[in-house]
Design a protein that fits this description.
The chain has 8 helices and 15 strands. It has about 300 residues and is of the alpha/beta class. Strands 5-2-1-6-7-8-9 form a 7-stranded mixed sheet. Helix 1 packs parallel to helix 6 and helix 5 packs antiparallel against helix 7.
Length: about 300
């Protein structure tokens, strides 16, 4: 069997390239399962998930259940008799009895080199923790969280300029390649699932909006990575008095004399240099609440943050 009857499950932008790759490879996508439409933006208008929009463009049927644990959901899946489930950033953990409907099980794509960075935020934490590389892993789903047997992996370098946004987009495209290779391996009978070494597992916990608050007592090297890892969401930020400042880019620089972390240092006229727990951080791109994102030179033309000011 070279082509499979599949049910695809996914929700955000990250899952769209994999869905398109599955479709373009000629596999029969009987159904696309995604999260329900959710309120979004200031107007709180109901917005469809990106996977739903992509499925509609491809002419594929869409199912948006509130829960995957109901008997009704199970019966819909069983009725379609898929050879295999493909799951990418779906947002639900499938019950075992659902996975067992498909003779070939459920293949999940995860944006890390498992067993490293299991969990919901592997892209952000790989950057924050200073990893030199990451990748995409396909695995056979089991009852655990990203604990299944590994099928295929592809690696990519994490560049010094990468943000979570740029790395997300690159890994999304890489996931399409990994899925295509995985299904081709199943068709050829060359796939050999490999158990994960659970002793080497690390976890990438969910991020909340409040997690973007900058702790100036950390080193400048850590904070430079932290800012990139938090971009575009939840966004690294600090406070100048009552004003929230979102920071998008910064570079590490020397600090002539120790100053309390968060203290604005005397420096060049077009620079905003801040003391950290080790060295200093020169802020290069920022946005004050309700303002626009701008380069530090442009910001300082209309605002002045005096030396000895403490950012919190």
């Amino acid at each position: 069997m070279s082509k499979f009857t599949t049910i695809f499950m996914g929700t955000p932008d990250f899952a769209v390239p994999a869905l398109k790759a599955l479709y373009n490879a000629g596999h029969q996508v009987s159904l696309v399962v995604t999260q329900p439409d959710r309120p979004k933006g200031r107007g709180r208008q109901l917005s469809p998930p990106p996977v739903k929009e992509a499925a509609k463009e491809l002419g594929l049927p869409v199912f948006q259940p509130e829960s995957v644990k109901t008997q009704a959901f199970y019966e819909v899946m069983a009725h379609l008799k898929p050879d295999i489930f493909v799951v990418v950033a779906f947002g639900h953990i499938l019950p075992r009895r659902v996975m067992e409907i498909a003779p070939m099980g459920a293949v999940n794509l995860h944006a890390s080199l498992l067993p490293a960075y299991r969990g919901p935020a592997p892209i952000q934490w790989a950057i924050i923790n200073g990893e030199s590389e990451t990748g995409v892993t396909s695995m056979l789903m089991d009852a655990g969280l990203d604990t299944g047997e590994i099928l295929e992996t592809e690696k990519t370098v994490i560049h010094p300029s990468d943000t979570a946004g740029t790395l997300h987009d690159r890994l999304a495209q890489l996931s399409a390649n990994v899925l295509t290779k995985t299904l081709a391996g199943f068709a050829a009978g060359t796939i050999r699932p490999v158990a994960q070494d659970h002793a080497r597992a690390t976890y990438a916990p969910m991020l909340k909006k409040s997690d973007g608050r900058i702790d100036w007592s950390r080193s400048a090297e850590f904070l430079e990575r932290f800012i990139r890892g938090m971009c575009p969401w939840p966004g690294a930020h600090t406070y100048w008095g009552s004003k929230r400042i979102n920071i998008f880019a910064a570079r590490v620089c020397p600090m002539a004399e120790p100053r309390p972390p968060g203290t604005v240092l005397a420096s060049f006229s077009n620079e905003l240099r801040v003391a950290t727990g080790k060295k200093a951080l020169s802020i290069e791109e920022l946005q004050v609440a309700s303002g626009k994102r701008m380069h530090i030179r442009d910001f300082l033309k209309g605002a002045e943050i005096s030396p000895a000011t403490v950012l919190e």
